[in-house]
Amino acid sequence: MAGLTYYPVLPGRLEFAAAIRHALLRSQPQVVAVELPMSLEQVYLQAIARLPEISIILYSGESEDEYIFVPVEPSDPFTEAVRTAREMGSEIVFIEPDLSPRPHLADFAPDPYAVRSIGYERFVEMYRESRRPDDPRIGAHAKALAWRLQGADPTKSTAVVLSLNLYDAVLEAMNEPQEDPDLGHARNEIRLVNAHPECLAEILVEYPYLQSRYEEYRMLLDDSEMIDRPRVQLQVFRHAEGTYLQNTGDEIKHWHRLQLAKYTRNLAMIEGHLTAGIFDMTVAARGIVDDNYGWEVWESANRYPAQQVDSDLETVNLSAEEIYLNTKRMRLRRRLPRYKQKLRPSSLKKRKKENFAGEWAEQIDGNSICSYPPEDLVIENYGRFLKQKAKSLLSEERERVEPFMTSLLDGVDIRETIRNWHERKIYVRRQDRINGDVGSVVVIFDDHNDEKYEYLTTWLGEHQNESDMAFYSTFPFEHLVGPGIGRAEYGGFLMTLPPRRMFDVWSDPDYDLAETKAERLLLAGLDYSVGKIVVYAGPKPPRSIFRSIADRMGHKILYVPLGQLSPTKLKKIRVVHVLDGHGRRPEAKDYIW
User: Which residues pair with 316 in a beta bridge?
Assistant: First the structure.
C-alpha cells in the first residue's frame, strides 16, 4: 500500500530503539503507527510523558485475581517510536486490537547486538530468511493489524512499527482487503503506577544502567556512534570494583577481570547471545570473586538515577515472578562485617602500638633478615597442595576411556557407561603413567607492575623440609607492624626442594634474558627443579619461548590459571612478614596478625 513504510523490531531491545529513532528522524513521517493496544493509548501517552522516569501500566486480566503489568522502558523501540513522533509533531496511531488473548509465541532471533556490526536492514533480512513458518494463531491478529493499516490516509507518509515475528504475516494480510475484525474487549481498570528503583533490574528487559546510558545517548544519535554494550558492561564492573573495595577492603585484580570477561562470554554463548545480561554478569562476579562482588555488580547494573521513590503516582515494588514466566533465581549471601562482630572481648589483648612515631624504625639494625615460621608452614603446605593439584591435572590429561574388551584396566567408568547405555557396552578407564615428579613451584600474583615490587630476596631453607625461596614484593620495612617486623605483599615467589642450593636469583646473570621479574623466577625454577615438572600458577601463561627452554632442559611447565585457585587462600598467602634477624622471632607473635 502506498505511503506505508514498515519498521519491524524486536520488542524491548536497545539497538532497535536506536534504529527506529534514526529512521524516523531521517524520514520525518506525518503519521507513526505503532503495534500497541488501542485501549492503552491514553495511559501509554501519560507514561511516555513521564520519561525518563519509568512507569508501569497496570490493568486487570481475564480473572478477578489476575493483573497485567506493562513496564514502559526508554530503550523499547515502540516507546522510542512514540517519543520521537511526539518530538517531531507527527500523528500517533495505536493499531493493535484488544484481542484476548493476544498470541505469545516462542521465537528465536539473533542477538540484537549484531545490528551494530551488520546493520538494521541486513538483520531484518537475515531473520526473514531463517524464520520459522507462520503460526496459524497469529492469523487473526495480523489481519486485524492489516485492517487498521488499510484504513490509513494514503496521502500521508506513514511509518509502521511492528514486531519482527508479525512482519511477514501482516504483509501477507495486506495483499487482500480485510473485513471488520472483532477487536475484542477493552482492557478494564487501567492505571499508571511508578516503579520502585530497587525493582528495575528484575522487571526491565534491558538492565537499568544500560537504559540510563541510552537516555544520555538518544539525543545525540544523529551525530554519535551507537552505545556499545561491552563498554557499558565494563563500566558496571569498574563501578562495582569501587564499591566492593569500599565495603570489604578487598581489591579486584587484573586476573579477576580476565576471568570475568571469559566467563561472561561463555555464559552468553550458552544462551545463544553475543553479550551477557545482568543475570549472567552477576553469576560471573559471584563465581570468579565472591557473593559480595556479585551483589555489587547487581547493584551497579541497577543504577537508574532518574527513578525516584517519591512520585505523584503510587510507587510499587515488583518482582520478576509477578511479570514474567520462567524466571531464573539466584541467591547472594553477603558477608559484610557486622557491629556485633567488631566488638572485642574484654580479655582480648590490644595490638601493640608505637609510643612515638618512628620508634620501631629506630630498632632496625639491617644486619640480617629472616622469615616468620608460622607463615613458612602455611606457604609450604600451599606449595604441596599445588604439587598435588599438578599431579591431578596431569592424571586427567593422561586418562583414556574405552569400551571394555578383555581387561578392566584401571576400573569401570560409571559415568561413561551410563552415558552410552544405549550401546549396551561397559566403558573402562586407562590411566597412563606420569613420567617424572613435580619439582619447583612458581606462583605469580602480579606480572604487570614490576616497579611496585622493589624488594627482591632469595633465602634458604633452614631444615630439610623447608624450601629455598626467591620472591619479589613491596618493601616490608615501609610498613612496620612491630620493632624490626615489616609487612609486605608478594608480587610472586619461587619454591624449590631440596634446600640450601639456591644462589641469589636476582643477581644471577644466567637469567638476564628474562623481561620481567616473573620470568626470572620461572627461569630459576627450571634451573633448580629436581623434578621434571615445574608448576607455574599465574594470571596468564608464560611466553612460548619458555616451553622451548624447558624442553631443552628436560622439564615441562604445567600452567595453573590463578582464577582456578581459591581467592581466599591466595589472599592469605600473599602477605609476607620479614623480620630483622632471628632475635625478633620470639616477640613476633605479639605484633603479627
Answer: 195
Q: In what order do the strands lie in the sheet with 31-37?
A: 4-9, 158-163, 31-37, 91-96
Q: Strand 55-60 to strand 67-72: parallel, antiparallel, or no bridges (unpaired)?
A: antiparallel
Longest CA pairwise span in the chain (Å): 101
pLDDT band at 285 (very low <50, low <70, confident <90, very high): very high
CA distance 145 to 97: 7
- Report pTM: 0.66
The cell numbers describing 425, all together, are: 557396552
**Phi, psi angle pair for 161, to nearest 5°:** -105, 115
| Cell digits of residue 514 | 628474562
Phi-psi region of 581 (alpha: psi -120 to 50; beta: other; left: phi over 0): left
Nearest to 78 by CA among 180, 184, 162: 162
Residue 149 in grid coordinates: 493499516
Model confidence at 321, in pLDDT bands (50, 70, 90)? confident
- Cα(469)–Cα(497) distance, rounded to whole angstroms? 9
pLDDT digits (tens, 9 = 90+) for 250-274: 888 888 888 899 999 999 988 888 8
Binned at pLDDT 50, 70 and 90, residue 385 comes out as: very high
Residues 6+ apart with CB under 8 A from 270: none
**In terms of Cα–Cα distance, which of 353, 329, 375 is closest to 473?**
375
- On whether the CB atoms of residues 498 and 439 are closer than 8 A, the answer is no
Provide the 8-state DSSP code for 510. Answer: G
Selection from 585, 294, 279, 576 nearest residue 455 by Cα: 576
Across 26-40, 134-148, 514-528, which has the greatest mean pLDDT? Answer: 514-528
Domain parsing of the chain, residue ranges:
4-195, 230-322, 373-396+436-588, 400-431
Rounded to the nearest 10 degrees, the angle between the axes of helix 229-248 and helix 291-301 is: 130
Give every CB contact of residue 340 below 8 A, 6+ residues apart in sequence: none
Instruction: Give the per-residue pLDDT at 142.
Output: 83
> Are the beta carbons of 390 and 555 closer than 8 angstroms?
no
**What is the b/e burial string over 123-162, where b = at least 16 CB atoms within 10 angstroms of the residue's CB?**
bbeebeeeeeeeeeebebbbbbbbbbbeebeeeebbbbbb
pLDDT > 90? residue 507: yes
With residue 254 as reference, give the H or E element that holds it. Answer: helix 254-270
Grid-cell match 616468620, residue found: 372
Distance CA 277, CA 112 (A): 12
Secondary-structure breakdown of the chain: helix, strand, coil percentages, each rounded to the nearest 5: 45, 20, 40
Sign of the torsion angle spanned by Cα atoms 318, 321, 322, 326: positive
Q: Are strands 191-195 and 315-316 parallel, antiparallel or unpaired?
A: parallel
DSSP string covering 425-471, please?
Answer: --EEEEEPPPPS-EEEEEEES-SS-GGG--EEEEE--SSTTS-EEEE
When the pLDDT of each residue in the chain is averaged and rounded to a whole number, the result is: 85
Alpha-carbon distance 477 to 480, whole Å? Answer: 6
Q: What is the mean pLDDT of residues 382-404?
A: 81
What's the CA gap between 276 and 467, in Å, rounded?
Answer: 45
Cα–Cα distance between 539 and 552 in angstroms, integer?
25
